[in-house]
Amino acid sequence: xxxxxxxxxxxxxxxxxxxxxxxxxxxxxxxHGLTPCLVVVIVGEDPASQIYVKNKGETTKAVGMxxxxxxxxxxxxxxxxxxxxxDLNADSSVNGILxxxxxxxxxxxxxxxxxxxxxxxxxxxxxQNAGRLAVGLDAIVPCTPLGSLMLLKDALKTHGDGNLxxxxxxxxxxxxxxxxxxxxxLLNENCTVTIAHSRTTNLPELxxxxxxxxxxxGRAKFIQGDWVKDGAYVIDVGINRIEVEGKSKIVGDVDxxxxxxxxxxxxxxxxxxxxxxxxxxxxNTLQAACVQHGLPVxxxx
Length: 301
Known about the structure:
The chain is of the alpha/beta class. The chain has helices at residues 10-32, 47-62, 78-90, 109-115, 127-134, 143-159, 179-188, 203-207, 256-259, 274-292; strands at 3-4, 7-8, 37-43, 66-72, 96-99, 168-172, 192-196, 212-215, 233-236, 240-244, 247-251, 265-266. The strands form four sheets. Strands 7-6-8-9-12 form a five-stranded parallel sheet. Strands 4-3-5 form a three-stranded parallel sheet, sandwiched between helices.
């Protein structure tokens, strides 16, 4: 169970997921001599990116995978970065490639992502993976939506019949990283899905129709408590830093305290969706390694 009352414990669920991944990695090593390898490329010295990459490396090693980090200076040329990606694509010992975003202004994120082999694109951002997801084929799914879906399905099992089919889902946010792939995942679960955004007319009224409300708009406490339908399941993807009484605080896109009494289940920020992102990155790397070596892909973990 990943909930405390109606608060969804993403931290606890992610811990369990990492443990299950570690078990599968150990089996791959013992039965096939295969250790999945994730390579993270970071360009420049953005402090937030450096912390995130460090955490990815430590978590990757903790589940028994090989972790490599390649740090390039901020003035690296785009052709040099594309050549590096080509070399990693051709390296059979590398199963997952992740280029940390944002990139310096002189580089095209779209061009860089497009250069990654779709089978090694463990972020799930490549247009081939996005297209396969859109038409219902097997694909590497972006980590944050994948983790959000895992938490949502687990909460439904805890508080209901576990069935998403037929539910009204409203996603506030239309990014390629979260909003759009989240919509595809929920469509695949037979939800009726609406993608909204900050400019949607009558947004509060639309949110109040949602059995499942996903907030991914990137604005602190944008979703008010009275926008939440009684009994709704709320997934808050937002991570926003604000000042409260002179101290820095991280909050989500939902006014958590106001929404909490209305929701059947809701993710907090932090310790909600956030921990699932890295756990799902490991899940994607594990699956990518199996596909590349013609081994059975683990089912739901």
